[in-house]
Amino acid sequence: MDEETGGRSKKRLLLFLVSIPLQSLSGLADDPSSTNVVKAEAKPSSSSKMDREVFFVCLVVAAVGILSVCLFKLWQKKKREEQHARLLRLFEEDDELELELGLRD
Question: Where is the signal peptide (predicted)?
Fold first, then answer.
């Protein structure tokens, strides 16, 4: 029961987050039914202003998320290369010890 409710709430939240930018984009388009010039020159309503702010906040959050994932991948790659270099150094030291002890010709 909880899984169904959790899944539904996640879907609703996702739909809500997707609908906000779409509403703000549709608010930016010209309304063909309005022919009144005064209406076009009027200040934007507070809801459309709020929609744009929410849209830009969502864009910033998405950009920060993508940037953090890229930085994490880069960090993992660097760490992997350091471990590989350390492993190679370890085997090189073993070869030098074998030559000094005369175990290998």
Answer: 1-29
